[in-house]
Amino acid sequence: MSDASTKMVPSSSILDISEKDSTKKRSGRNRRGSSKIQAAKSEAMRQQLLQTSVACFANMPYSEVSAVLIAERAGVSRGGMQYHFPTRLDMLQATVRYLHARRLEIFRNDLNSVPDGVHPVDHMVDSHWRNLNEAEFRAYQELVLAGRSEPELHKLLTSSYRAFINEWHEIAHSKFGWK
Predict the structure, then answer these.
(1) Other Cβ atoms closer than 10 A to 171
(2) How far, in Å, CA of 122 to CA of 111, rounded?
(3) Smallest Cα–Cα separation from 160: which of 99, 90, 70, 86?
(4) d(CA 36, CA 43)
(5) What stretches of 60-150 show up as alpha helix (H) in DSSP?
(6) Quick one: which of 107, 96, 106 has its CA closest to 53?
């Protein structure tokens, strides 16, 4: 009985198939490390878009800032912008998260840089005054003002601000014991 299903496949054929598979894995996108490089490039593009978004909101009225403008100023294609932020709300959410993280980082740095002989409260007042003129604060205030007339943005800002304030209090408490 010479049924095709019972024929033995020569071992060299099996070896050929697995060599082809391993060759495929060694080339192109499956090359070891290339996904890490691509992930790093993607994250760098995302950070560039967020930094550009902050710069736009810090220097322009909310109504004049669009995803297309941010992409152009960041040197990113529209497709690249949409890959990272499919909707305007996604972009706004990410920008607000980025702003909160940056502002908390600035606050931590200010708390950790109190000069000798200067009262911490005096240093914090001076630091806060300086921060009022920085891009992160101006961009956030532009979003807050726009949130007065855009319900989705207002809802986003309200919920994220609570989290921001809670973390701000935790940082202050850990540094000074403030409650």
Answers:
(1) 15
(2) 11
(3) 99
(4) 10
(5) 67-74, 78-84, 88-111, 120-131, 135-147
(6) 96
Around Cβ 138, how many Cβ atoms within 10 Å? 16
pLDDT digit string, tens, across residues 128-158: 899 899 999 999 999 999 999 999 999 999 9
Residue located via tokens 């009985």: 1
For 116, the 3-state DSSP assignment is coil
Length of the chain counted residue by residue = 179
- Contact between residue 54 and residue 139 where contact means Cβ atoms under 8 Å apart: yes
User: Are 134 and 100 in contact, with CB atoms under 8 Å apart?
Assistant: no
The DSSP letter of residue 56 is H
Q: How big is the CA angle at 19 (ends 18 and 24), to the nearest 5 degrees?
A: 95
d(CA 47, CA 95): 10
User: Under DSSP, is residue 32 helix (H, G, I), strand (E, B) or coil?
Assistant: coil
Q: What's the pLDDT tens digit per position in 86-108?
A: 999 999 999 999 999 999 999 88
